């Protein structure tokens, strides 16, 4: 079931109740289809303290947290090495639900990274092989040539990831569920991890 197919429309029917496990609700809200993964915005802070945001695919989710995959040479990986705390925000396709998760992000193990790579589409597999600063510096024809050379050397969907392929899991210690409501104000419920339990807070939408 995708987030957009969750039953009910009223905020009080959709938001996890105080006392319920917000991580179970997170898994239901994010349900990931590897063929059509949800998109989220990942916020990190760079070593100079500047916030950085970018969209990325949510590759998977378990009660431990959502995963995302990227290039080990990217800005986000540099940011997380200096400060592992990050925020991931996901909007449902119908724009009626928003989930914001904050916590430390750390690399997943190599088996998980390989499984996720193999679930990626042929285009995204090739992208992982060709997306580099050197390729980006080329004119459009040069970038197409790099792509064509990768196809002829490795095939249209290389089964092994490049060394630069990596994955992270964000382990939320704060989750904010936002729900729109057709005949009431939108509403948020935030859960903070405190002394091993979840503390719920009601917030205006
Ligand atoms: C729809 C969409 C999906 C994307 N998915 C990913 C992804 O799963 N992983 C990733 O590293 N970048 C993804 N990107 C590219 C990022 O937004 C970003 O440009 C790139 O990761 C470099 O970010 P950084 O330099 O801040 O690390 C996606 C971009 C868009 C627009």
TrEMBL record:
Pyridoxamine 5'-phosphate oxidase N-terminal domain sequence ranges: 36-147
Gene Ontology molecular-function annotations: FMN binding; pyridoxamine phosphate oxidase activity
Cofactor(s) it depends on: FMN
InterPro entries, per database record: Pyridox_Oxase, Pyridox_Oxase_N, Pyridoxamine_oxidase_dimer_C, Split_barrel_FMN-bd
Alphabetical keyword list: Flavoprotein, FMN, Oxidoreductase
Any Pfam family the entry gives: PNP_phzG_C
Residue intervals of the Pyridoxine 5'-phosphate oxidase dimerisation C-terminal domain: 165-203
Superkingdom per UniProt: Bacteria
Gene Ontology biological process terms, A to Z: pyridoxine biosynthetic process
Family: Belongs to the pyridoxamine 5'-phosphate oxidase family.
Name assigned to this protein: Pyridoxine 5'-phosphate oxidase
Species name: Dietzia natronolimnaea
Lineage of origin: Bacteria, Bacillati, Actinomycetota, Actinomycetes, Mycobacteriales
